[in-house]
Amino acid sequence: MPLEDIEVGLSDEEQAVRDVAHKFAAEVMRPAGAELDRLADPAQVVAKDSVLWKVFDQYRALQFDAIEDGDGDGDPIQRTRVRYLVSEELGWGDSGLAISLAVAGFPAMFARISARPELIERFASPTDPQIGCWAITEPDHGSDSLAFDQPHFDDPAVRPNCVARKDGDEWVIKGQKAAWVSNGTIATTAALFCTIDPAEGFKGGGVALVPLDLNGVSRGAPLDKLGQRALNQGEIFFDDVRIPAEYMVIGKEAYGAVVEMVLALANAGMGTMFVGVARASLENALAYAKERIQGGVPIFQHQNVKSKLFKMFAQVEAARSLARRVSLYNSTHPPLVQYSIASKTFCTQTAFDVSSAALQIYGGNGLSREYPAEKLLRDARASMIEDGCNDLLGLVGAEKL
Asked: Do 257-398 and 12-110 fall under one CATH topology?
């Protein structure tokens, strides 16, 4: 039973795009996500015969990648409304697949930011779609690498695991990115966040576009995880990998500001996506409560269940309102990272709380893999750690208050 959307003033075009996204989420993403979740070996998720590749193909055929990229003319508010409507539906379909599809466009985004035609042609050509990754997390550094306003960020005593040094007309990359790089073992290109001046700590970083078929690049095994098992994650190793100087698109002078900008955009996107997860859990629990008989009546007729469902409904709507408001602001103003962080932390916590409450409504059946409740709970739990651990993100956002 779909939850009613009371968004005011949607155009016919916006409603049509949302309907297409919902159909894709329901008919393609959900079955694929459930199938991939059941695979015991995460290497099977990315095998040549995996349904994962059909999801990518159909996502591109529907041109949802262009929506995520933010391309196109017209009203930025309308484009943003379309983007958050689609993002919520994809999260409703399967959050692991939704993240994989979204992060695939990271290198293309940086190519466009560079405004260099040759890089746009190489890394953002619509006729040569690539799978990208955001390679920032390292074995010794997770959310701390995103904490641009904390004291450690410019501390040279904090040693990086991945460094690039200039050598003539090239950069030479050496080191490792951790097992948590989304799309890490399947990506064709990386938006690589690495250190280029260790004397300035994380602040002395840069962003490079790195084709991952170059000599010296190797990968680890796909990560075996609790949730979001359809999302491929894994290590990337760089052994004196050489790239042209122009592939370093962000230098140390702008690195801190770029980390802030990317965090603001990514966190806002996570907010809308995990509203979809919370909504999916609520809708499933509501439908189950109206079918499951206990005490001679559907359990929806029991006051404690009815009260619990209404609380879940209010939580979802509060998260949805915050996520959409932040997305709209970011589309028309320089993004305010504290609001994006608020959206990410609040919406992911809501997804977890609502999914946990949903499982409780299912009772013992909620623990069974026959029902979707336990998968949604596992997927929601991962969201409070990825894209910045919620606890640390709160510290970053608090600095702006």
From this structure: no
